[in-house]
Every structure is written in C-alpha cells, then in structure tokens.
Amino acid sequence: MSGRFLRSAHGLVDVEYGHFLVESRLPLPAAPVPAQDVGLSVSRGAVVVAAEGTVTRYALVQLEAWSAAPDGDGVAEQVVCFPDAFVRALGLSAERPGTAELDLGAPGTYRVRLHRWGADDRRHEEFPHAAIHRVEHVVLRFWPTDEEAEEVPADPFFRYQAAIREWAWEFTRRADPESP
C-alpha cells in the first residue's frame, strides 16, 4: 500500500560544484562525501544531491513528507538520520536556504527517494546561453523507516563550505537581526 502525502516545501537552489545539500536545521551537520553515480550521499543530518547535468546551475527542488513509501521508482534511494524534524535545501556555501523548511513530523531515520528531470547537456551544447537548460527539476520524498542509516565520513571540502556558510549566516544575522 502506498504512503499518504503529508506536506511539501519547494524553492530554487544553487548548484555549486555539481551538488546541493538538504540538511536538518540544527545542529549544523558535517556534510557527507559528494554523491557520484548514485545521485545521493548521506551522513547524519545531511543529504548531498549530485546534479545530473554537467552544466546545471540551479535546481528547482520540491521536498515532500510522506507517511510511508510512495508508489513509483526514483533515480536513487538512501537512508538518512535527521536530529531535527525540519529540513531545507540549499547550495553548499549559500547563506540562506533555497527552499522553505519541510516539517518531517519528528526527528529520526528516513528513507529518501530522488526523482529528477530536465537536465539536458545536449540542449545546452546547441544553445549555450539559454539559462533554462541549466535548471534541473528535483523531487525528494522522505518517509519514516526503521532501517539503520549508514554513517559516511565527512569530506574536508564540505567542511570548508560549511565554514563559509556559517560565516555568511553570522554576517547576515549581524546586518539584519530579523534574518532567519
């Protein structure tokens, strides 16, 4: 039996170095090793999504919470543990999330399924200045699971990106105390 759709959050996310991040709100996770062929890699509190197209600049991302596994197949699936019930998508060094926060319902272990379309490097080669071909559409569906999440060591490169992001967030908070 298929799970029930609960809620979603969406937005436009920067793709940096061919990746973007979905992370829990707190504490700031150590991002995993970048996803390669599978499209997803995970560590505690974070999912790294690899862009399919080599020229992808943005991802139009929809995060979805489900009560159980939805019907259908995706490109990739992983298990991730989130220490916070709220997740959001953002560029690796972005100062603000690119999506609204998605309320998963509770902290815990979730299965995540990746669906994507729209990345077409061939179209970019024909029309290199057409920005529309630099956008990939991504849907990430999350549902609770009893499976164990595999711990993946953090990549030092992502730690640098997290340090840049923390600095940018702190700078933004000082300049605008109303900033999230």
Keywords:
180 residues; mainly beta; Substrate Binding Domain Of DNAk, Chain A, domain 1; 5-stranded mixed sheet; 5-stranded antiparallel sheet; 2 helices; 10 strands; globular
Task: Note down, in words, how this protein is organized.
- With 180 residues, the chain is mainly β.
- It has one domain (5-175): Substrate Binding Domain Of DNAk, Chain A, domain 1.
- It is 14% helix and 38% strand.
- It is built from two helices and ten strands; from the N terminus they run βββββββββαβα.
- The protein has helices at residues 121-126, 156-175; strands at residues 5-14, 19-24, 40-43, 46-50, 58-66, 76-82, 86-90, 102-103, 108-117, 135-144.
- A five-stranded mixed β-sheet has the order 1-5-10-9-6, with no helix packed on it. A five-stranded antiparallel β-sheet has the order 3-4-2-7-8, with no helix packed on it.
- It is globular and about 45 Å long.
- The model has no long low-confidence stretch (mean pLDDT 81).
